[in-house]
Design brief:
Blueprint (H helix, E strand, L loop, with lengths): L3 E4 L2 E3 L5 E7 L9 E6 L6 E6 L5 E3 L7 E6 L4 E6 L8 E7 L13 E5 L2
Parallel strand pairs: 2-10
Antiparallel strand pairs: 1-3, 3-8, 4-5, 4-9, 5-6, 7-8, 9-10
């Protein structure tokens, strides 16, 4: 069973940057597609970015050009580099397996990102 731990969140001013990490267990990491999701208070969880097992990526329109998803198959880790952060990026960020939607019903604890001056 795949388990993952998200980290790297924090409080940052508008225009700032953060890099999130998702460390995953299991030997099948490299064959999975991975996605980063976020959930803001009172809103549904949404897909922010995804990367497949050929390192092809896609992004939500709201983060395109500002966020970059990447993966390290040796370290079993997926990253989300975020720059030019906006207050509307404030949310808890999660990772999960899948390209269009989460394939695992269980989630990690997530990592809180707060963008505020």
């Amino acid at each position: 069973q795949v388990q993952f731990v998200e980290s790297g969140g924090g409080l940052v001013q508008p225009g700032g940057s953060l890099r999130l990490s998702c460390a995953a267990s299991g030997s099948m990491f490299s064959i999975y597609d991975w996605g980063w999701y976020r959930q803001a208070p009172g809103k549904q969880r949404e897909l922010v970015a995804a990367i497949n097992n050929n390192a092809i990526t896609k992004y939500a329109d709201s983060v395109k050009g500002r966020f970059t998803i990447s993966r390290d198959n040796v370290k079993n880790t997926v990253y989300l580099q975020m720059k030019s952060l906006k207050p509307e990026d404030t949310a808890v960020y999660y990772c999960n397996v899948g390209w269009n939607s989460p394939l695992l019903s269980s989630w990690g604890q997530g990592t809180q990102v707060t963008v505020s001056s």
